[in-house]
Amino acid sequence: MLTLGAPRGAAAQKLDAPPHPELGQRSVPADVDWANPIYQTAFDDADELKHWQLEGGRRMSVENGKFILENASRENHLVCWLKQEVPADFLLEFKMRPKDRKEGLAIAFFSARGLNGESIFDPKLKPRTGAYPQYNRGDLNDGKSFGPVLGSGWIALRQMGHTVRCEYDDLKIFPLTAGAPAAGSGPAVAGEITLPAPRPPTVVRFKDNPIIRHEMLPGPAGTNICYPSLIRVPSWLPNPLGKYYLYFADHKGTYVRLAYANHVEGPWTIYEPGTMHLEEMLAVARANAGVKEAEVGGKHIASPDVHVDDEKKEIRMYFHFSITPRETWGHRSGVAVSPDGISFRPVNTKPIGQPYIRVFRRDGFYYALDRVGGLTRSRDGVTDFEAGSTDFAAAVGHKVRGSGLPAVGTRNALARAKGEEDVLPGEMRHNAVKIDGDVLTVFFSRGGDLPEHIMCAQASLTGDWKTWRLSPPVTVLLPEMDYEGGKMPLGAPTNQGMQKFPRPLFKELRDPGIFRDEGKTYLLYSVAGEGGIAGARLCD
């Protein structure tokens, strides 16, 4: 905690003791990443206020390029939170000038995420008005009363009532160099490296979002829109419909949707016949189920994850299905290939793993990350997937298979109805991956979070792959726009609600998809409870 202040009243007039030898000295860690500030502002624009939340006090304002915090009285303290999440290890610097240099006290607060991933802005926490006990003995438990914090969190400017009014300027936050184990991450296994929470990327939404809307599809086909996967059409593909192909799904649909465009931001056109169909996977199941054909049935096919294989000149699609008999097929994943990106042929003769996988290649292996944070790998990406550590995604909140726990959202809803506090974080469900050198960044949402939103965490891809671990997460994008359900009340959507037509809006974001093209990185995501697909550019 950084404390900046001055003695009060008459004490400011008389200083009998000599100044401390370190007074005026600058103590700076050696590993500050000065080139990549997490956040910085000179408060030149009043629009900057949207990034801050005031608790207590009289008001906050931007005047003449200064951030002004005012107390209502000498007993009216205030805390003003920066809404952007920061990693556990950082350097904060800013300029401040109190109204009266003879008295005042300004302090920087830091609140780490709770033991179960809770945010300081969680609406379930008790209201705060700036009184100190609400912060040092509040209802957000980060697992420590002092010492190293458990992970990322939020910074606040704390101003005591007798300060009355204070100006702030040139506020900057820098991360410390990544690579050291995250503070409070718990005991490590041999060879394990856990990165600190990453610096959240700057997100610039497309101007004409959503790029895929329910009215673009015929009738009931537009009731549910989710899980985008975008590719640039390779030069060898015959008779392309456009420069880019965007694959997506209906969570309960019988085929994978396709849209095409000549620009990433659109406009996009729907290819109504679709691509991979459930019936094509059912034919494989009937031939390999070991039961009578009449006993094989299917409910849906969804979650495309599409890759271009230039060497084989084919498009590869990973997807999930729900097929009976459950014992041999069930709710799992498959893989299909296509010469043209439209007509796909399944190549797996049995399930390859859990559903909702995103796949990446590294050092001769295909790695698959599934919906609950399980990491597996295979030499050919089709057969013999080997399981990695069940702790790979433990730091972000994941479901442990076989635990017998009900869905977190359901458990927490029941707990709230009984007046209990939620004790479980959300569960990772749908993810996307991005690799930069030896660093894997995983984007995901968590079922059970309110509102559900896009987050990210990182892992170092060095050493034994079974020692890889995700870092604590940070928030990337919250549902703020109208088309994201930003004005809707908090509440988890139901499966039935996400299949209604016309579609109601829900306040949540899901299904991140990462696409890189011409040196730019894009984030695609489903909006308002799988009610459409929006896009944004990530500026790291």
Rg (C-alpha, Å)? 26 Å
- SS class: mainly beta
Taken from the alpha-carbon principal axes, the silhouette is elongated
What is the CATH topology descriptor of the largest domain?
Answer: Tachylectin-2, Chain A
What number of structural domains do the residues give? 2
CATH H-level superfamily title of the largest domain:
Glycosyl hydrolase domain, family 43
Please provide a brief summary of the model.
The protein is mainly β and 540 residues long.
Describe the structure.
The protein has 540 residues and is mainly beta. The chain is built from 3 helices and 31 strands. It has 2 domains: 2-8 and 22-175, Jelly Rolls (Sandwich); 202-539, Tachylectin-2, Chain A. A 5-stranded antiparallel beta sheet has the order 1-8-9-6-3, with no helix packed on it. Strands 2, 4, 5, 7 and 10 form a 5-stranded antiparallel beta sheet that branches. Strands 11, 12, 29, 30 and 31 form a 5-stranded antiparallel beta sheet that branches. A hairpin with a 4-residue loop joins strand 17 and strand 18 (314-324). Mean pLDDT is 83; it is low at 1-15, 178-188 and 399-406.
